Amino acid sequence: EKGYEKERIATGTVVGVGAGYINERTGHFIPNQLKVGERVFYLERLGIPIDSNNKHYRTIQEYQVLGTIEN
Question: How far apart (Å, rounded) are the C-alpha atoms in residues 11 and 66?
């Protein structure tokens, strides 16, 4: 079995987004495309887990999102 076949896909709801980032190669500002409330797929191992007030969050960067889930 290859490593990527063992990857666990997780889902989550976007609870906050930053403004965007500066592309290091071009120097241009790239605004974030995700919106608060969107549901997304991501690899479970990515990001930083945060626990706050008995709630579990995970910070990930927008490029780590595999896709969005339509309602």
Answer: 10
